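Note to self: the last two entries modelled the partners one at a time, which told us nothing about the interface. This time every component goes in together.
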Amino acid sequence: MSYQSEYDRSVNDPEGFWLEKAKLIDWVAAPKVGLANDAQGIERWFPDGTLNTCFNAIDRHVNAGRGDQVAVYYDSPVTETKKAITYSQLQHDVARFAGVLARLGVTTGDRVVIYMPMVPEALIAMLACARIGAIHSVVFGGFAASELAVRLSDASPKVIVTATCGIEVAKVIPYMPIVNEAIEMADHKPQSVVVLERPQAKFTPVQGRDHGWSQAMETAEPVDCVPVSATHPLYILYTSGTTGKPKGVVRDNGGHAVAMTYSMQAVYDMQPGEVFWAASDVGWVVGHSYIVYGPLLAGCSTILYEGKPVRTPDAGAFWRVVQEYKVKVLFSAPTAFRAIRKEDPQGAFFQQYDTSSLAALYLAGERLDPPTYHWLDELTNLPVVDHWWQTETGWAIACNPRGIESFLPKAGSATMPTPGFKIEVLDPNGHAVEAGEQGSVVIKRPLPPSCLPTVWGNHTRFEESYLNPYPGYYLTGDGGFIDHEGYIFVMGRTDDVINVAGHRLSTGEMEEIVAAHPAVAECAVIGVADELKGQMPLGLVVLKDGVTQAPEEVEKELIQAVRSHIGAVACFNKALIVERLPKTRSGKILRATLRKIADGEAYTTPSTIEDPSVLAEIQNRF
Ligand code: COA
Ligand code: AMP
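The predicted structure of the combined assembly is written out below.
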C-alpha cells in the first residue's frame, strides 16, 4: 500500500475511509453513518454506532484466546517491583474495580478523577471507568493541590481514585495531604475517595469518604461491559491553555478506539503480541493513548515504567527495559534522550544491553531538535521518528507512517501528515503561505476520529480557541512550515503555552500567580530555551513603588508560589526583577521580543514599541 493512496482516500472520502477502518474494532452496533454534525454543528464520528472501549481493549483479546498473553509489564525501579499482568488477569481486576465504582454509585456518564502515580491500579481504574461508561479524568501526579482542585470543580466527579504516594526517584511524595487540600478548595466535593495504600506511605481514612483499594476489591462483584454510543465521552483530559483555567479536552469512545487501533498499525507498525513502550506518564495524553489504550486495543503488551530515564539507577535504564521485555517500539520525549545523552554521551550503556528487538524510536511532546536526532540516529542506527501531536488530537497529526510506507527522514521535521489530517499553513489573514514559509499550522475540518469535539462544560471556549480564528479550520496553536517536498516542520507554539521537559504549561497561568504577589506591579513569564528541558519559564517582574522587601526575597516567594500552585514540574526557578517591561503604545507586553533577548537572538525593535530604551535596559540584565 502506498502512503499517497491511503492519504488521498482519507482526505477525499473521509467517511468511506473511516467506516472501513471502523471494522478494526468490535461494535455492539456497527456504525452505518461515518460522520454527522451534532446539535452544535460539530462533526462527530460514527454517531449511530455503539461499543465498549474496555471490551475492545481487554475482553475481545481474552475471547480470541489471548488471555495468557501479557497485557501489562509493570517495571518500577523506584520500588524495585516487577509484575507481568496477563489479559485474563487484567480483565479480572478491571471487572472487579468496575464493581467497586458501581457500588459507590458511579454509573454511565459520571466522572471519576484519577490522581495516581505510575502503578497498574491507575490503568485498571481508567479501564474500569470505560467498562461502565463512566468518564475518567486523570490528573498528573506532579500537579499541586490547586491544580487538582480546579479539575475537581470543573469535572465534578462522584469519586476520586488515588494512592497514598508517588515516588520521585528516592523521594516519597505523599498524595493524601494534596487530595484533602484539593477537596477542601474545590467547589465540588466528591462523595468517595478510593485510596491505594502503598507500603511507602500510610494514611488515616476520612470516615464515610475514604475506601482502601484492596478491601474494596476483596468484596467487589465483577461488572460486565456497558455498551455506550460512539459519541459518549470516554475521558476528559485537562491541558494548559493560555489562561489559568485548563481546558478539559473531551475524547469520545468510538472515534478514539478506531483511531488508536489504526495508529498502532499505520503509525507504529505494531502487530498483536508485540511489545510497545511509551515512556511517559498516564497523566499525559501520551500515557492515555500509548501506555493504556493504543497498545491494549491492538492486542500488544504495554509497559508501565515507574522511573526516570536517568537516576533510576542510571542512564542505561531505557536500554535495560528494552532488553528485558524485548520492546519493539520505544516512544519517549526528546528531553528524556537529552538527559541520557548528558550522562552518557558516548552511549556506553546502549552498547551494554541487547536492544536487537527494537525496530524504531518515536519521539514527541516537543520538537525533536536536530542535535538529539543525530545523536540517536548515529548511536542506535534505527529509524528515529519525530511525530507531532497534541492532547486535543490524541494521536499523531504528522509522522513518518512506517506501517504504511517509510519516508527518508529530515532532521527537524515531523515528516508527513498522518492519514486523516489535512494540514495547511496560513498567514495572519488566512491565506495559504508558499512552501517553505512559516505561518500558523491549521487542520482543515473535519478533523479525523479521536480529535476533541468540545471543551468539557464550555463549548464556547472550544469554538473561540480552536474553530473561530480561521473558519473551516482547526487552529493547532503551533507555528511552522511545509517544505517543497511536503515535509512538515513544527517550530513552536504561537501562544502562551510552553513546553518544559515535555510537559505542556501555560505562562499565562504562571503570570496570574506571580501577579497575585502583593509586591508585584506587573510581570511577564516567558519560555526561554534550555539545553536539557527544551524550555524553562522565566519571570520578568516589576515591583510596586515603595516596596521595601529585598528582590531576592520576592523572587524566593514567587518561586514558592508557582511551586505550590502548579507543582514542581513547572520548573519556575527564576524571577528577574526589572524596572520596566517593553510594551506597545497600546500597552501590550512585547513577549516575543523578550523571548529573543533572553535567548540571545537578534531582534528588531518593534515599530509599535512605546519606549525603545527599555529593550537595552532588559538586555543588560542577561
Ligand atoms: N510527581 C511529583 N513530582 C514530580 C513528578 C510527579 N509525577 N514529576 C516531576 N516531578 C517533580 C520532580 O521531582 C522535580 O522536583 P524538584 O524540583 O523538587 O526536584 C520537578 O518536578 C521537575 O521535574 P522534571 O522536569 O521531571 O525534572 P527532573 O530533573 O526530575 O528530570 C527529565 C528531567 C528530563 C529526566 C524528566 O523531565 C523526564 O523524564 N522527562 C520526560 C517527560 C515525559 O515523558 N513527558 C511526556 C511527554 S511524551
Ligand atoms: P501536549 O498537548 O501536552 O501533547 O502538547 C502539545 C504541544 O507539544 C504541541 O502543540 C506542540 O507545541 C508540542 N509538540 C508535541 N510534539 C511535537 C513535535 N513532534 N514537534 C514539535 N512540537 C511538538
